[in-house]
Amino acid sequence: MATQNVLNLQIPENKSVDEGFDYSRRGQWLRAAVLGATDGLVSVASLMMGVGAVKHEVKTMILTGFAGLVAGACSMAIGEFVSVSSQLDIEVSHMKRAASTNKESKSEQLPNPVQAAAASALAFIFGAIVPLLAASFIVNHKVRLAVVVAAVTIALAVFGWIGARLGGTPVVKSCARVLVGGWMAMAITFGLTKGVSSSTL
């Protein structure tokens, strides 16, 4: 009877039906998508905030943000392509060695470098569009900066929530981590650019 009670304590009655789901299966594509979108959002927003610290023209901010979008998307695509290509080479070599020694090798779907590169670039673009759209139709400089920060804050919270839900991690912790990181990036870029501009111009 005591043994039965111990077993009952070890298995909670409200155990969720998907508790045994292996969230690591989502790791590869989730990492590329979430990191790509978050990087696009934070990088382009920080770049625009830095330029906005010294230039008040909306055209300058938009052109800077667009250049950051294109450069960042290319960088993400190339980096992901190289990374996944290296992983693919390792897995293919492992399969060849296993075949040459008559050892069994699990037949798993091999990573696709082109698919990973495209996903990273698209995710980066998706994130980078947010601050660009937020700044496009605001004439007043201070209001424009405030709107960009507000839009980025909302988007960061959404990305953090999505990543937490799909990855099975705590939502509050994930959102807080993403928000603080994004705010710090924008504040540091804005402050340093303004400081450098004031001391050199």
UniProtKB/TrEMBL annotation:
The keyword Cytoplasm does not apply. It is a multi-pass membrane protein. The chain crosses the membrane at residues 29-54, 61-79, 116-138, 145-164, 176-193. GO terms for biological process: intracellular manganese ion homeostasis. GO terms for cellular component: membrane; vacuolar membrane. It is found in: Vacuole membrane. Pfam families: VIT1. It comes from the Eukaryota. InterPro entries: Ccc1_fam (IPR008217). One of its GO terms (molecular function) is iron ion sequestering activity. Keywords: Ion transport, Iron, Iron transport, Membrane, Transmembrane, Transmembrane helix, Transport, Vacuole. It catalyses: Fe(2+)(in) = Fe(2+)(out). The keyword Ion transport applies. Vacuolar Fe(2+) uptake transporter. Belongs to the CCC1 family. This is Vacuolar iron transporter.
